[in-house]
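Quick start: read one record
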Amino acid sequence: MFTFLSRLVLVALSATLMTAAHAERVGGTRFELPSAEWKELVSFEQDLKFNGGQYVLPLYTTAYVLPSAASTTPKAILVVTSSRGGNRSSVNWASDRCPASRPKFLAMDFGTNQLTDRLECVVVNSEFNPAAFFKNDQRIADALKDKGLELFKSGYSLRSIVGVKTGTYLRTNLMVQRDFKGLEGTPANAADRHEVPEPLVAWAEAMHVATKSSTHSIVGTLTLPPVEFGSK
């Protein structure tokens, strides 16, 4: 007999399937974009090498842009790079280290720079130069040009990287113009922010929690923090 409870289960299942159908997928990572205004820019593949190049896994990258209604310069660029899950019993991340902090550039390795079986890194650059960042890899800059868009001159970059011992890898990088709010009113955990505004650090920390959770999720679900803008 088709009961009321059965109907509720079917409704819930249908809603889940509809959400999954509209979710973005990059490698083994699934997520919803912050809003409907975001558009896919370009996708490409590259190799993830570890154990000194002994093993190779494919990495999948997709870049998205948040267009500006008043300019050909996007308000934000989101780049997600993901494996489809690891297939090794143990990998060596010794060649992929988190950089050192400096003024207006905060980097946190959570102790993993001293380890080889896992990787964690958060970087928040409050003096971000997109042209310099993409100098050695023009794929995203070229994709912008092909669509009649331009890189903004300066802004913020908030990056989270997680690699686990099986080889599962996820990197999220949000690059934004200077009216990005971050997580206002949310205290950051970092004791020394190296002159980086606290709302930016708090947002990057929240993004890192989500990135790390995704690498341990069976379905790779990634929940992005809110991406909001105010006045410059």
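The helical segments are 4-22, 130-133, 139-146, 198-215.
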